Amino acid sequence: MILVTVGTQIPFDRLAESVDEWVQSVNQVHQVRQIVAQVGKSKFKSDNMTVFQSVEPEQFEKYISQCNVLVSHAGMGSILTALRVKKPIIIFPRKASLNEHRNDHQLATSESFANVEGVYVAKSKDELFDLLNRKDELVSGGLNDSDEYIRLINNLEKILG
Question: Would the pLDDT of 128 be above 80?
């Protein structure tokens, strides 16, 4: 399954529409597995994907665990979640020039994560299509606990017994 998420604050129809267009293009050649899209406060509809404006946290966790790849805006929460659960993520940053956000911090975020294993950056629809076409080749990354975090957990375990 492919899980598409645009976050909870603002819609991102360019991402949802692009994935929908990709599904239409590949459905003519071969069957695409289930695609679930969380699109925020958008009027976006699709015959090709299961679309939700929002998803309860418990259900979102189920979708995350079931998906083979996550496709997302370049939001830190989505990126860190994908790394935490070891799922490959394709990030498609919002652009201020297209009135998708107030500034280009998502472009900066995508540049910062471009060399992180398991994080794939698509800055254009063509790049997104290319990555989606290769979705079965994408590998997951992961987060390593910092030394400080490990010490904190060890100390809490000692305190709490």
Answer: yes
